[in-house]
Every structure is written in C-alpha cells, then in structure tokens.
Amino acid sequence: SMDGAPPPTSPAGLSAYVAVSQLLGLTLLATTGAWLGRYRGGVAWRSSLQFNVHPLCMVLGMVFLQGDALLVYRVFRHEAKRSTKALHALLHSLALLISLVGIIAVFESHRSKGIPDMYSLHSWCGMAAFVLYLLQWFLGCGFFLFPGASFSLRSRYKPQHIFFGIALFVLSITACLLGITEMLLFKISDSYSQFVPEGILANTLGLLLVAFGLVVGYVLTRDDWKRPPLAEELGLSMDFKTLTEGESPGG
Q: Locate the Cytochrome b561 domain: which residues (predicted)?
C-alpha cells in the first residue's frame, strides 16, 4: 500500500476451510451427475428424463450456489462493500433462477406421468425453502442493495437477514436429503436394503450434502472470521446515518 503497510491477509485457517467447502461442493455436484447419469438414464428436458433435471438443479442452486453466496462476505474481506454485496445478490439470483428451472421440471414431469404434486414431506419442505428464499432475496435487495431503507431500519433487520439466511440454507439441505430418500424408495425400494451400488452412491451424496453444510456453517459462525468493516465503510455509515436519521454521527 501507499503508506508501506503490509497487505491485508485472511485469518489463519479461513482459506483452508473455504477450499474444503469448494472441494466438497464440486464433489457433490459430480456425485449428483454420476448418480443421474449412471443409474437414472441422464438428464433431458422434453422426455421421460425431465424429472432428473429437478435434483440436479436443486443441488446446484439451493445448496452449492446458495452456500457460496453466504460465503462471499468471508472470502472477499478486503474488497469494496458494494462490490461484495452485488456478488452476494448475484449468486443468490442465479441460485433462485436455477432452482426455479428445477421446480418447473418436476411439476411438468409429474403432469406428463399423472403423478400427484405436493403431498410429501420433501415437497413441503422444498417448496417452503424456495418461497422463503425468494422472500429473503426480495427483502435483502430492498434493505441493502437499493437505496431507501434508513440506517436504523437496516441495522434492526440485519440480524434477521443473517439468521434466516443460514436457516434457509439448512432447510434446503434438509429438503435435498428428504428428496434423495424419497427417490430411492420410489426407484429401488426392493433392493435398497441390500446395499446396492445406487443406494450407496446416493447415501454418499447425502453425506456430502451434510459435510458441505457443516463446513459452510462453521465458516459463517466463526466470529473472528467475520468481514471487518473497512475505514471508508465506517465513514460512509456515519454519513448515511446522519442523512437518513437527521442526527449527528455521535448522537
């Protein structure tokens, strides 16, 4: 830097945990693809394989991309807050879009095969996760990304935004685990208890989902790994508070 100070560094261990999370995330995506490709015939849109688009999109969107969106503030610790915020919103937007494709796929597949919708615990948890995730996205954009909300309103909502962000990530993984079990019981109920390769692979996918969730959750809940406010951010916060609350920064 200009004053000769050493460049900012990440806390010890943070980079390693983030790297492990990404390795787990890519592995669970590869495992999902391997399961669908090897045992379920692959993925296609306008065919009997349309259903398989659903698990692939939900794992990619509601788990991997959502988890990465939550990690943005830990990974990009020294970049401008607005850029980090925009990336956070962009990843969540991409996760929502991909998940919507997965939801459309399962409803269309059910309709073409005459299968009823929304009767299982998996479908209830999954739809709740998606709808609440969409609501969380709208509220997050309204409070933090676009101007308008007062400083005190942002400050009061921020703890709720953080809590529900983590809670929805947990709910999404739970819905995926329920979906894996449901799919196995539908497809290989006669042989599942005999430790057949498909059952073992799908169970392994479930463990990878849990592991990914645990690592991401650990990174998010370490207080000493939180993104420190930059000096210019503190100044801007005080200016923003003065403009929106009509009081002096010290007041």
A: 20-221
Query: By residue range, what is the domain housing residue 181?
Result: 16-225
> Is 63 within the bounds of a domain?
yes
CATH number assigned to the domain comprising residue 207: 1.20.120.1770
- Rounded to whole angstroms, the Cα distance separating 71 from 220 reads 7
**Letter string b/e over residues 125-158, b meaning 16 or more CB atoms within 10 A of that residue's CB:** bbeebbeebeebbeebeebbeeeebebeebeebe
**Average pLDDT estimate for 104-126:** 97
pTM across the whole model:
0.89
Yes or no: say if 61 and 53 are a contact pair by the CB < 8 Å rule: no
Query: Please, which pLDDT band fits residue 233 given cuts at 50, 70 and 90?
Result: low
For residue 164, the tally of other CB atoms under 10 A from its CB is 17
pLDDT score at 62: 98
Is 1 a domain residue?
A: no
Calpha distance 44→57 (Å, rounded): 12
